[in-house]
Amino acid sequence: PRRPRPSHHHPPNGTAQRLPDIVIIGVRKGGTRALIEMLSLHGGVAAAESEVHFFDWESHFQRGLPWYLSQMPYALPGQLTVEKTPAYFTSSKVPPRLRRVNPGAKLLLILRDPTERVLSDYTQVYHNRLLKHKRHRPIEEVLVLKDGGVNLGYKALNRSLYYVHMQNWLRHFPRDSIHVVDGDALIRDPFPEVQRVERFLRLEPQIDAGNFYFNRTKGFYCLRDRGRERCLHDSKGRAHPRVAPDILHKLYRFFHEPNRRFFELVGRTFDWN
Ligand code: A3P
Questions:
Q1: 221 pocket-lining for ligand 1 (C-beta < 6 Å)
Q2: Ligand 1 centre and the CA of 78: distance in Å?
Q3: What is the pTM assigned to this prediction?
Q4: Is 120's C-beta closer than 6 angstroms to any atom of ligand 1?
Q5: Is the ipTM of this complex over 0.85?
């Protein structure tokens, strides 16, 4: 039940497509869809429908700014526009490109416990492969090498090394242009986390507690938008594979130092394992 897509021949009166004021840069599986949907509850926000992948996909980037603009929502003059592409955060070519085009952008980065994020990432790939009638190797085989060491070659593991990617962003954007959203807190209790985002964006406080209700069947919060209730798609909030405790602890230990470096970079801690 999305809003109707504006017709390109008849954009709504007084609206225009502009560069996004806000970019949700990631992280993949951090809760990016939940965040953009929750932010869209605010009347002062207009969101792009799908993931744009302008700065990270060469075939899109080569089409230039007119194409990027064509992907943006039709917005009223006072509205803030937002696009989300979770892959931006972990692509080193994105920060310089984004700065050149949109140096004043406010960036939102939603992160989760890095181990949890790896399991979520694995689960997503597992399901995508299943759709193509392919199998994914068992989780434990992917995570750990035969000698017992953590498999550093596993891409999902690298995506959870948040400090590595954050360093790249901070070379191109000032710290205060990036707001980190606590994705674990957004799952547990979304409203306070969304209020912090409103404040960061200097939006008038408009979203309220009544916009959220816990749906026991889904096991997650769902949205109440002008009386209409809706949950995120079934692909959001999947069950993760069970992993042996010793392997889980190996991962917690592995992420300990990278997490510490991330906390230092952003001047804030998170209660990750
Ligand atoms: P899981 O499916 O692994 O639980 P993204 O949109 O970036 O792909 O992130 C997906 C994750 O958003 C889900 O990962 C889920 O945990 C999280 N999420 C946060 N709030 C949610 C909500 N209200 N409903 C469903 N999923 C939510």
A1: yes
A2: 30
A3: 0.96
A4: yes
A5: yes
pLDDT tens string, the chain, 273 residues long: the values are 455 555 556 889 999 999 999 999 999 999 999 999 999 999 999 999 999 999 999 999 999 999 999 999 999 999 999 999 999 999 999 999 999 999 999 999 999 999 999 999 999 999 999 999 999 999 999 999 999 999 999 999 999 999 999 999 999 999 999 999 999 999 999 999 999 999 999 999 999 999 999 999 999 999 999 999 999 999 999 999 999 999 999 999 999 999 999 999 999 999 999
Q: Please work out whether the CB of residue 232 comes within 6 Å of at least one atom of ligand 1.
A: yes
> How many CB atoms are located within 10 Å of the residue 56 CB?
21
CA distances (Å), origin 62, targets 32, 56, 57, 85, 106: 25, 11, 9, 17, 24
| Domains of the chain, earliest start first | 18-266 (3.40.50.300)
Tally Cβ neighbours within 10 Å of residue 10.
Answer: 7
